[in-house]
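[09:14] KT: can someone run the structure on this one? pasting the chain below
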Amino acid sequence: MSRPILIDCDPGTDDAIALWLALGSPELDLQLVTVSGGNAGLDRTLANASAILSLAGSEVPVVPGADRPLMGRFTGDVRVHAADGLAGVPLPRGRPPAPGLAADAIRTALRGAGPEELTLIGIAPATNLALALATEPALASRVREIVLMTGAWGEGNWTPAAEFNAASDPEALSVLLMAGVPVTLVTLELTAQALVTPERISAIRARGGGACLRAACDILATTPPSRRLGGAGHPLHDPCAIAWLVAPALFSTRPAAVLVEGGSGPGRGRTHVDRWGRTSADPNAAVAETLDADGFFALLGERLARLP
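[09:31] RB: done, structure tokens below
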């Protein structure tokens, strides 16, 4: 049976690929998409999410959420995602978003779910998910798993200390890590293994496919290579969180105790990941450590080719 999921996102180039991967995967039953600011402002990320789903012919509701973190403000990453959030690749306008607010919609979805039924996937700053669970903690019993693309156990990609999503709202990430439900973290060390290269883009294009596959390849080809990874390509962050649910055999994981640094100093958003039991803290997350990259890109191409 398909696993019921909710995706909270901030499209974002890699968010677009992640949404299409989820829609192309029969193992997943996407029931709701909620949107925050992050990679771009909320007005832009919301329009992008609607366009991404509409291009795939999906009628899954898209609900707007937080336009700022629990503290401070979001700062978009125009270096990677450009001002429009999609690296300048145009998509047809999507359907209007659903009425309401993301945190309310998440709580409603959880109230309608059975015990440990709904999987929450966060590929954005954690604000919307944290607001939902912090304001009605009993709903955590309806969550099967929280899968987050966030954090790093080494160097960050937004500040020297922190990964972008974690740095954008570390307080919200802390709420999710303390919610008492299974959490899987897909960190920068994992996503660096999903390196997009011209050869891998060409292999996906060769599958044919429809408008979604073509747009995905255009986005992948337009996203700049990562200086952090030596310019050989760029990491495909968010789809790794979807792939973990679709094909977990592509990954290895390790239990870890994870603590998020708050405050206003240079370490804000750092995720302290104890993979080796060096502290007395009990593990509160499974951390994805390794990825079969060739298998991942084969899966991505095959699923994108199923879409319109």
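[09:33] KT: thanks! The chain has one domain: 3-304.
[09:34] RB: yep, looked fine to me
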